[in-house]
Design a protein that fits this description.
Helix content is 74%, strand content 3%. The strands form 2 sheets. A two-stranded antiparallel sheet has the order 1-2. Strands 3-4 form a two-stranded antiparallel sheet. Helix 5 runs antiparallel to helix 9, helix 9 crosses helix 10 and helix 13 crosses helix 16. The chain starts with a strand and ends with a helix.
């Protein structure tokens, strides 16, 4: 048994391991090439998060999905570069919106160079992703543009909040389907599509990716509360401090509204107060870590991961299918 990537994904077949490792190495080279500019400062800013590392979750899914066709097909690696560049670009923008100080264990771009440079660098990465995408054909461009529209719509809906009468948890899960599920679904779709897999396989893997992406983001929600910066690579409680309504907080609010327990109401009041104060922020984190709402969010993570696993049932058995199933376990493991 060998291990592929930071997820600790076990691969029980040497040929599959070799394909995945070779593909990911090619993606890494492609990312460095795509983030080079004639202007050295732009190269430095654009490669800031590339060189910081990362899980390469989306490229890994591209490589695994490609196993259901020809994993050596010429479009597989470039499509993985496209989805990772798109993801990296959103991180630059997210850190500006969240006023985050740390990303992947290093200073965020906005901390190092300011918000304007961080936003423009994200735009530069989007442009480079589009350049690579253009060589993959009009269908790939259409798929990516639709996913990007969903991604941006999800971000806007998160910022705007639920409409009157809409359940906040349902609204939030819809947001995650756009913000995260859309690009993870495209990762699986591109891998299968570029490899020439049957259309039914492409559809199954797209639906798998959508659910896995939501589970992945829910695990991040749990990590934002439960982890330290060493585990997550970013400042704990960033979403909490910025008032972003992640699932543990939404479950807390629902419990406070339904049962009116004094300790729940006090914690809601604390969260709604000034969490720019480090002591108040630390106290809110401590109380949330001990609250049943965090465990409820973990259960939701498991539920989406299991839905993703169930989508794989019609696929032919083999090492690639087993690895995709194990991805579900890896996502849940992140959430504890």
């Amino acid at each position: 048994m060998t291990v592929v990537g930071p997820f600790g994904l076990s691969v029980r077949d040497q040929a599959l391991e070799a394909d995945v490792q070779t593909g990911l190495a090619a993606v890494e080279a492609g990312l460095l090439d795509a983030t080079k500019s004639d202007v050295p400062f732009i190269t430095e800013a654009a490669q800031h998060l590339v060189l910081a590392g990362g899980k390469r979750f989306r490229p890994l899914l591209v490589m695994l999905a490609a196993q259901f066709g020809d994993p050596y097909a010429p479009g597989v690696v470039p499509s993985a570069v496209v989805v990772e560049l798109t993801h990296l670009a959103t991180l630059y923008h997210d850190d500006v919106m969240d006023e985050a100080d740390v990303r992947r264990g290093v200073d965020s771009a906005n901390t190092r160079w300011g918000n304007s440079i961080a936003v423009l660098t994200g735009d530069f990465l989007f442009a480079r992703a589009s350049h690579t995408l253009a060589d993959l054909g009009p269908e790939a461009v259409r798929i990516q543009s639709e996913a990007f529209e969903r991604l941006v719509t999800g971000q806007i809906l998160e910022t705007a909040g639920p409409m009157d009468g809409r359940d906040p948890v349902d609204h939030y899960l819809d947001v995650l389907g756009g913000k995260t599920g859309s690009l993870v679904a495209v990762s699986c779709r591109f891998g299968a599509m570029m490899s020439g897999a049957d259309e039914s396989v492409v559809d199954i893997l797209t639906q798998y990716g959508e659910r896995l992406g939501v589970a992945f983001q829910l695990a991040d929600d749990v990590l934002d509360i439960a982890s330290d910066s060493h585990e997550s690579g970013k400042t704990p409680g960033t979403d909490l401090r910025e008032g972003i309504p992640t699932l543990p907080v939404l479950h807390l609010r629902a419990a406070a509204a339904a049962h009116g327990r004094p300790e729940d109401l006090e914690l809601v009041a604390l969260i709604d107060g000034d969490l720019g104060d480090d002591e108040r922020h630390a106290e809110a984190l401590r109380l949330l870590r001990a609250h049943p709402a965090l465990e409820q969010a973990r259960r939701d993570t498991v539920r989406y991961a299991e839905e993703a696993r169930a989508m794989l049932a019609p696929l032919p058995d083999g090492y690639a299918k087993a690895a995709l199933a194990e991805m579900c376990d890896a996502v849940v493991h992140r959430a504890g």
